[in-house]
Amino acid sequence: MPRTMINRLSQVSGFLIPVAALSLVLVVVTTGWERNLADEGTAAHLFQLLMAMEIPVVAVYVATAQQRRSPGLFATIALQVACVAAALGSVWFFGL
Fold first, then answer.
1. Which among 33, 45, 57, 71 would be 20 to 30 A from 39, CA to CA?
2. Closest CA to 47 of 95, 88, 89, 13
3. Residues whose CB is less than 8 angstroms from the CB of residue 91 and which lie 6 or more positions away in sequence, other chains included
């Protein structure tokens, strides 16, 4: 697979993973899924796996990016960090 394709896939995945985590949080909040559990349930573990997957995806994006030809590299990373912050902030806001 060419380097540019890997870069593009990791860039798109870097946005989709935190959006999936945020949507998971919103589903848990709106449906009351796993409210009466004494310990963490499936949703919490899925959220943790999604957040853990974000780290290598961003690392692959940075490693495959051509820094001199990619003026939006830092803007893309900042947007990915903002998406992760939104997902983590929603967990904090709803007290999950």
1. 57
2. 88
3. 25, 47
Q: For the chain, what's the residue count?
A: 96
pTM: 0.78
Q: What are the structure tokens assigned to 24, written together?
A: 């998971």
pLDDT tens, residue by residue, 59-92: 888 888 877 766 677 777 888 888 888 888 888 8
Q: What angle do CA 64, 67, 71 make, to 5 degrees?
A: 120
Which 8-state DSSP code applies to residue 38? S
Token pair recorded at residue 40: 């963490």
CA distances from 50 to 13, 23, 35, 44, 47 (A): 11, 11, 20, 10, 5
Domain limits, the chain: 3-94
* 45 token code pair: 């573990």
- The CA dihedral of 8, 10, 12, 18, to the nearest 10 degrees, is -170
Tokens, residue 11: 């860039």
